[in-house]
Write a sequence for this structure.
């Protein structure tokens, strides 16, 4: 199905270009590209059920049950019936995400049903291998899957997604809660600082230096680096590279014939060798192979 213009096909609150990628009994996957004119808050998004939102490109803000977070290509969100979500686009429109939607009946038949149905949803991140699996699933859906294969691939992806989701002490921010003794004001201030740094990096062209990012958020590079590591569990460099690699994957999936050296320069890498090294370290494949994996009709997803 080609992209359609309108709201989210299942009850969204802002204009978008959306495309159904696949469906089977009890499950639906679609892609949304936001095209809003008003950068302010919109919502609430009605009829939120068991949905998984996976970032693909761009960034926006979402407020889920009163908690504001930055959504970018590294994030994953699980919602449950009764959740209330608003979204805002202060960085401009054009962000793209995939939405996976499931019925309670389908989830109840899974061996991990309790973890989907009985625990709180999560608002966290996905690692690079899972992000690549997500993108390859999208690529396979675009090329065409029958209902049987689509359902099998999606069930397999769900299991890996749940296994990788943050639970308890492993959730982002747990280390900083211990470090500051759970003082609410300090914890909130550090989270705001980390979120502001994420906003700056997500909205940049990857050419900003650490000093420039720190200046934009109003603190020293040392303080920003220390707080960001504690809040997110990763360094600023690691987070920046995660954003860059996801942007590169988008460029490779477009397959417009752009030389890899140009892709490297466009995304702030020193040269093609630097691009290849960082991408291979994160997702396990060099850029040339990823271009084939994400575009070639005959390629099967792992």
């Amino acid at each position: 199905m080609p992209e359609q213009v309108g709201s989210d096909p299942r009850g969204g609150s802002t204009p978008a270009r959306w495309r159904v990628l696949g469906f089977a009994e009890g499950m639906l996957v679609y892609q949304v590209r936001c095209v809003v004119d008003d950068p302010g808050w919109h919502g609430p998004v009605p009829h939120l059920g068991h949905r998984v939102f996976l970032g693909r490109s761009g960034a926006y803000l979402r407020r889920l049950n009163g908690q504001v977070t930055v959504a970018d290509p590294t994030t994953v969100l699980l919602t449950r019936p009764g959740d209330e979500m608003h979204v805002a686009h202060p960085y401009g429109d054009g962000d793209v995400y995939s939405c996976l939607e499931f019925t309670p009946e389908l989830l109840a038949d899974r061996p991990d049903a309790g973890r989907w149905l009985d625990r709180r949803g999560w608002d966290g991140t996905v690692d690079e291998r899972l992000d690549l699996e997500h993108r390859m699933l999208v690529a396979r859906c675009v090329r065409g899957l029958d209902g049987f294969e689509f359902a099998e691939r999606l069930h397999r992806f769900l299991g890996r997604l749940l296994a990788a989701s943050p639970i308890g002490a492993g959730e982002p921010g747990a280390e900083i809660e211990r470090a500051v003794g759970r003082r609410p004001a300090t914890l909130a201030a550090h989270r705001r600082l980390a979120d502001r740094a994420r906003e700056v990096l997500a909205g940049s062209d990857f050419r900003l230096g650490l000093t420039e990012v720190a200046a934009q958020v109003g603190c020293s590079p040392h303080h920003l680096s220390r707080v960001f590591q504690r809040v997110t569990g990763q360094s600023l460099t690691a987070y920046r590279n995660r954003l860059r690699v996801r942007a590169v994957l988008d460029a490779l999936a477009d397959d417009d014939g752009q030389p890899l050296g140009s892709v490297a320069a466009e995304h702030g890498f020193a040269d093609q060798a630097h691009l290849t090294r960082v991408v291979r370290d994160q997702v396990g494949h060099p850029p040339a192979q990823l271009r084939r994996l994400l575009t070639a009709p005959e390629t099967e997803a792992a």
About this structure: The longest strand covers residues 16-24. Residues 167-176, 298-302 have pLDDT under 50 and may be disordered. Residues 184-202 form the longest helix (19 residues). DSSP finds twelve helices and eleven strands in the chain.
